[in-house]
Design a protein that fits this description.
Helix content of chain A: 25-40%
Distance between the termini of chain A: 46 Å
Largest interface: A-B, 48 and 45 residues
Helix content of chain B: 25-40%
CATH class of the largest domain in chain A: Alpha Beta
CATH topology of the largest domain in chain B: Rossmann fold
CATH architecture of the largest domain in chain A: 3-Layer(bba) Sandwich
Strand content of chain A: 5-15%
Radius of gyration of chain A: 26 Å
Number of domains of chain A: 4
Largest sheet of chain A: 5 strands, parallel
Shape of chain A: globular
Number of domains of chain B: 7
Number of strands of chain B: 19
Strand order of the largest sheet of chain A: 8-7-6-9-10
Largest sheet of chain B: 5 strands, mixed
Distance between the termini of chain B: 59 Å
CATH topology of the largest domain in chain A: FAD/NAD(P)-binding domain
CATH superfamily of the largest domain in chain A: FAD/NAD(P)-binding domain
Strand order of the largest sheet of chain B: 14-13-17-15-16
Oligomer: heterodimer
Number of helices of chain B: 31
């Protein structure tokens, strides 16, 4: 047995173990991308750099643990090195983690997944996807200016996917709340203002076991949705229906209640947290004596905390906006912040992951993207006031090009890039490569632009003795993983396609449908 | 079609039968296929895969890794344009561009429309003293200028088909009246020594002279080539430099006929006369000798101590008897017959010789490590994969002293208990390969290799392995991967090759120069060797001196000699009366040392301290016209191109550094870019897997350290030396006489044809090829 110290902790491992393995044994997870449990070390990604007693850096996956070693697995210098290694990898990473539409959506809705579910005719599943981020889909489906469609890659090819109408279709199709409501856990929150922001905040708090109480000076909930929008665009029955769905989860609404400074102090004493969502900054709101800016109440970046602990503010009271979807999105985000406040953690709002983005599609790449889509310009409902028929919705949803990465939820590169706050832009010193997608009949897709050249797939096909397999082609910066003699993916991966896709640390090689995919 | 395929298959089958079916035979198989078929057709590679145990994946990845291999057919003739350091600083890029224009090639195209010529950039042809150099098939053209492209192509056409007419008649030893020595190193050959040899043979044959014609290896005075030395029996030797074929008759006649001396042509070796600096204007193609004779000077040789280059210019590289008569094989005899292996190791340890390949690891300790391994089968590898642009020591040593290096290897093998050895030599050095191959055959015949060498109990086999063009294979673990038929991917050490090397057996990897010094140490004793040099760096070091120095060449000096002594005493100072600015030592792993530090003694430690590195010993002198940002960019583009691509910091770090350097030379960089460049350089050094990546930032870091103001100038859009073409413009001054010569040579039609008027250059159309400036007879073109 070998005895060494890792991060000042005594560790004992069998002889021959790598420093990386020794650290694992001690419960310390050193990041690594090119390491695979079936394969010998390869020493490519260099994320696993650690330090020995002398301060010398070395890749822990490839060095054997030895007696008396004193290893530091992370400090300022190592973090800097890992961040740079990630930034170098990202500098040539051609792929979007999340689709541009999702990033463009102020509520950050998973649009491509909704589209795929609609295309598969799974209405209830698609409603779940929508309601995870948007509390009022049928409403927003009628009034949203759809910034998502401005960001849609399909727009570069011909016309954007009619995302907003599809969302409306999902909302119209089903007015249920699609999940069981969890029991209350004892915390109570008062929300001042029952417009889109306040309603969304109430909804998502209730879904987390918090008891929300809405206060509004108007007799009915809805705020400006009720007053500032023509009934022709947004029929009252529809608004009522969608608000009812929210309130039915267990949200208390107190109408005809104007909250002045005295009330405000009361609420502060009686509730565990307050959310100000009054829609605009007026004298009543000013009387709350929260620090403000020229435009409204001042809050922290992602956490929506005001100058007073336990008091949050969202929506137009921060600054006036015509985007109801932004208010709805903030209502969702503040629920995260309030929960973080309750748990005593750092208040960061909705956790945001690193997002790789490669910018505009090039005309040469249209064909690559259309491989997962259908041709044809966007369609509109034949009966405009009624919205899409199910058939129309399916047709339109199929135009979505699957711009989001299949590995978005389990990509190690994304995970570590989040952890080390890596910036993709830092080393973008030359034009990106073209993006391509190669499909294999047995169900995997290869996107070379997302490859980090760690060789796990090459080594796996070698291990399992694929006749052709995958191999390194070229060298240096231009090295690529390819197939000998330009054979097809089917020829290359006869035996181990799924094993290889499973082993890929990024989204370069992925099953076309992953396990757990609602479309599986 | 079926016939062609069948024909191809039978070629491949024959090659496989000869080279073997195992993975380690892959590179020799591919080399042989390419030699026969001009490239690697897919069908041939499929046949290799079908007929051997090598997988398609291995074949494809190896064929695409090494620069030597081509998957597409090429033109009938290869035009290799050397873009090594020495050629770069003398305008190789402009020469390359001129050839591109000549054939009307766009970026990414390499073969002309008739399929006759293919252009290729090569990192170093090892003819640095003739820079810039262009090689068409086997014909080498030196000192090429952009305006000579047509002449060169025409001359090559005229040369085609010509062969040496007569063989030299061998004279009876007793009747020899003297010896005529002709340098036959690559530089000499490139400068026209073949023609000289033919002229001498002709003269000797025509006159029935009883003289011995002798081929000798490199003399080291590469700036003087071609060299002819006349050694009359009992008389004083006379060395003629830069000889032209038509002079040969007179030279020979003056010695072997009772006619008077041709004093205007002759000069005595070691005669202390001042060197006449000539920057002769080349008329036409300088494939032949110069029209002015230089006088050799004692100072070129004075400070040198030849150990690896012992008897240079005297011994015929392949004459075994002569090598023996000059003390050759005495060391191996002593080692094998009178010493035990541990005694040999101790002797080498006591000499304190350190690896001459660059990093300077003590050789004796390395030997001891291998010797200590209990394995039955061990290997020795001579690392001759010299790939530095601007270094040609290994080539010259292998070409000129093959026996000395083989002797060193046999001694090493005996000391560590190895039974097999490989000479890993770059395929770009065909002459070195040929010489070593022949020398090995002679050694087998003389029982210096094979079973029971010299009657001892020691048996040892050695063979040649041709590298396929990858600089990274100079790194020992990558070299071994290549030897095993794999991509030249290095791996982390430990395990060191000493424990687990070729085919997982203990393997000793030594550089050519290290092995070339071993026999001297064994023969003369460790004490004599360690008496030379500095405290931590003993013995001598061979350097390839090139660039803006008056007398370039190959030199061997004691460790501790100062940079100033090398450049000004041996090298005769800076050419063309320019200012000494810096010296680039150690090639792409090394750094630029500024003129202020010229009094630093050269040894491993001092160079590292200054941010350079011994490297393999390239020494390129830079003058005040050289842009240091451009030099850094040049080296980075080399290492970036040669990075194997295995680890993140090297694969991407070098690329991003190069991007930033390119934007600096284009004048588009921002101040933050400079900080990022420095941070990238530091991390590429710290985070890379092997020596290539770890040292790649040195040219950047050293120029940033000593020449930061030049980087600052580029940030402002200025290139102080006028080297960066994006930042300069060509302007006609009032000296212009309206002769239209500039307009005639301009390839971009940027100068209107206006006879008798002052010419104007259209800056928009100008491509900064520098053709007009030298064409102007009155120096009327300025660069700003």
């Amino acid at each position: 047995m070998i005895k060494l110290k890792i991060d000042h902790q005594e560790v004992e491992v069998p002889e021959g173990s790598s420093v990386w393995k020794a650290a694992e044994a001690a419960g310390i997870h050193i990041p690594a991308l090119c390491l695979h449990n079936e394969l010998d070390h390869f020493t490519s990604c260099m994320l696993c750099l650690v330090k020995d007693g002398s301060g010398k850096l070395f890749p822990s996956c490839s060095v054997k643990a030895a007696d008396h070693m004193q290893i530091i697995t992370e400090d300022e210098e190592i973090r800097e090195g890992r961040q740079m290694a990630l930034e170098l990898l990202l500098s040539e990473h051609v792929g979007d983690c999340e689709a541009p539409c999702q990033i463009g959506c102020p509520a950050h809705m998973n649009i491509p997944l909704m589209n795929r579910l609609i295309a598969a005719g799974k209405w209830e599943e698609s409603l779940k996807v929508v309601k995870r981020d948007i509390a009022l889909p049928a409403v927003l489906g009628r009034i949203c200016p759809a910034p998502c469609e401005g960001a849609c890659h399909r727009k570069t090819v011909d016309e954007p996917v009619s995302i907003c109408l599809l969302k409306r279709f999902v909302g119209d199709e089903n007015d249920l709340h699609p999940w069981p409501v969890p029991p209350l856990e004892g915390k109570r929150v008062a929300i001042i203002g029952a417009g889109p922001a306040g309603l969304a905040a109430a909804y998502y708090l209730r879904l987390r076991g918090v008891e929300p109480h809405l206060y509004d000076r108007a007799p009915k909930a809805g705020g400006q949705l009720r007053t500032a929008i023509s009934r022709d665009i947004l029929p009252e029955e529809l608004l009522d229906r969608e608000i009812r769905t929210i309130l039915a989860t267990g949200v208390t609404f107190n109408g005809n209640t104007t909250i002045d400074d005295r009330h405000f102090e009361q609420l502060r004493r009686n509730y565990d947290a307050l959310i100000v969502a009054t829609g605009n900054i007026d004298d009543t709101t000013k009387a709350f004596q929260l620090a403000g800016t020229a435009k409204g109440i001042q809050v922290t970046g992602e956490g929506y905390e005001t100058s007073e602990a336990g008091i949050f503010a969202i929506g137009n009271v921060l600054r006036s906006s015509r985007l109801a979807v932004r208010s709805v999105g903030q209502g969702k985000e503040v629920a995260f912040a309030v929960l973080q406040y309750f748990h005593g953690g750092k208040i960061i709002g909705e956790p945001r992951l690193f997002n790789s983005r490669f910018g505009k599609l090039r005309p040469t790449e249209f064909a690559e993207y259309l491989k997962e889509s259908v041709a044809g310009k966007r369609r509109f409902p034949a009966d405009s006031p009624r919205g899409f028929t199910p058939e129309e919705a399916v047709e339109e949803a199929r135009r979505c090009m699957h711009c989001d990465c299949r590995a978005a939820d389990d990509c190690k590169l994304r995970d570590f890039s989040t952890r080390y706050a890596a910036s993709q832009k830092r080393f973008q010193t030359s034009p990106r490569r073209d993006m391509t997608k190669k499909f294999q009949a047995k169900g995997i897709v290869y996107e070379p632009g997302k490859c980090i050249k760690c060789g796990i797939c090459v080594r796996l096909t070698e291990k399992y003795r694929e006749k052709f397999g995958l191999t390194f082609i070229g060298r240096g910066f231009d090295v690529e993983i390819g197939i000998p003699f330009d054979e097809s993916m089917d020829v290359a991966l006869e035996k181990v396609a799924l094993i290889v896709a499973e082993g890929c640390p990024t989204g370069a090689l992925e099953p076309i449908r992953k396990a757990g995919d609602p479309l599986q | 079609m079926a016939d062609i395929k069948e024909g191809m298959n039978s070629v491949v089958d024959r090659i496989i039968a000869e080279k073997g079916r195992e993975k380690k035979a892959l590179i020799p198989i591919l080399q042989a296929i390419q030699k026969e078929l001009n490239y690697l057709p897919e069908e041939a590679l499929r046949q290799v895969s079908a007929q051997t145990e090598i997988t398609a994946a291995d074949i494809y990845s190896v064929a695409s890794f090494y620069a030597q291999f081509r998957m597409q057919p090429v033109g009938k003739h290869m035009i290799k344009i050397c873009v090594g350091t020495a050629c770069h600083v003398k305008g190789a890029t402009q020469v390359y561009d001129a050839f591109m224009r000549k054939f009307g090639l766009k970026e990414g195209e390499h073969t002309d429309h008739d399929g006759k010529f293919t252009l290729e950039k090569v990192s170093c042809l090892g003819c640095c003293t003739l820079a810039p150099v262009v090689q068409i098939d086997q014909v080498t053209y030196g000192h090429v200028t952009t305006s000579q492209v047509d002449d060169i192509i025409a001359d090559f056409g005229a040369q085609a088909g010509k062969k040496g007419k007569k063989q030299f008649r061998k004279a009876d030893g007793t009747e020899i009246r003297g010896e005529i020595r002709i340098g036959l190193g690559s530089c000499c050959v490139a400068s026209g020594s073949e023609e000289i040899k033919n002229a001498v043979e002709e003269t000797v044959n025509a006159n029935g002279l009883q003289v011995k014609l002798k081929h000798v290896g490199c003399v080291g005075m590469c700036h003087q080539v071609p060299l002819v030395e006349i050694v009359p029996t009992g008389g004083e030797p006379v060395l003629y430099s830069k000889v032209k074929p038509e002079d040969v008759k007179d030279i020979v006649a003056s010695h072997f006929k009772p006619t008077g001396l041709l004093s205007k042509l002759k000069s005595r070796l070691l005669e202390s006369v001042e060197y006449i600096q000539t920057d002769a204007k080349w008329e036409g193609i300088e494939r032949y000798a110069l029209d002015v004779r230089d006088k050799p000077v004692s100072s070129f040789l004075g400070r040198q101590i030849p150990i690896a280059t012992e008897y240079r210019g005297i011994i015929n590289p392949l004459d075994m008897d002569e090598y023996r008569s000059r003390g050759g094989f005495r060391a191996v005899r002593r080692a094998l017959l009178k010493m035990t292996p541990p005694e040999v190791v101790s002797e080498v340890k006591a000499s304190h010789i350190r690896g001459r390949g660059g990093a300077g690891f003590p050789s004796g300790i390395k030997w001891e490590l291998v010797a200590r391994q209990p394995h039955a089968e061990k290997y020795v590898i001579c690392n001759g994969d010299e790939g530095d642009p601007g270094a040609f020591m290994d080539r010259m040593l292998l070409e000129s002293y093959p026996y000395r290096i083989i002797e060193g290897m046999i001694i090493a093998a005996y000391a560590v208990g190895a039974s097999r050895g490989f000479f890993y030599i770059r395929a770009e050095y065909p002459l070195a390969v040929r010489r070593v191959r022949e020398a090995l055959a002679n050694c087998y015949a003389a029982n210096l290799l094979g079973q029971h060498i010299l009657g001892s109990n020691f048996s040892f086999d050695a063979q040649i392995y041709e590298g396929a063009g990858a600089f990274v294979c100079g790194e020992e673990t990558a070299l071994i991967a290549s030897l095993e038929g794999r991509r030249g991917y290095p791996h982390i050490r430990p395990p060191f090759p000493a424990e687990k090397g070729y085919m997982d057996h203990p393997t000793l990897v030594n550089n050519v120069e290290t092995l070339a010094q071993i026999s001297w140490i064994l023969r003369e004793g460790a004490a004599r060797f360690s008496a030379i040099g500095t405290e931590h760096s003993k013995g001598t070091k061979v350097f390839a001196l090139a660039g803006k120095v008056a007398r370039g060449g190959l030199i061997e000096v004691p460790m501790g000699t100062t940079i100033r002594q090398v450049i000004f005493e041996i090298g005769g100072g800076i050419a063309n009366g320019r200012q000494f600015k810096a010296v680039q030592i150690g090639g792409p792993s090394g750094g630029c040392i500024p003129a202020e530090l010229a009094d630093t003694p050269i040894d491993y430690e001092s160079l590292t301290k200054m941010g350079a590195m011994m490297g393999s010993g390239g020494l390129v002198v830079l003058d005040d016209t050289d842009c240091m940002v451009d030099i850094a960019r040049f080296f980075l583009s080399f290492t970036q191109n040669e990075s194997c691509g295995k680890c993140t910091f090297c694969r991407l770090g070098t690329k991003r550094m190069l991007d930033i350097l390119e934007s600096l030379t284009r004048g588009t960089a921002k101040r933050e870019d400079l900080d990022e460049l420095e941070r990238l350089a530091h991390w590429t050094r710290k985070g890379s897997l092997c020596g290539l990546g770890k040292t790649a930032p040195n040219p950047v870091l050293s120029t940033l350290k000593y020449f930061r103001e030049e980087y600052e100038a580029h940030l402002e859009g200025r290139c102080p030396t006028g080297k960066c073409t994006h930042l300069i413009r060509y302007v006609v001054n009032d000296k212009c006489i309206g002769c239209t010569l500039c307009a005639q040579v301009c390839p971009a039609d940027a100068i209107p044809f206006t006879p008798h008027e002052k010419h104007l250059i259209d800056t928009e159309a100008c491509i900064r090829c520098d053709a007009c400036r030298p064409a102007c007879p009155v120096n009327a073109i300025d660069v700003f």
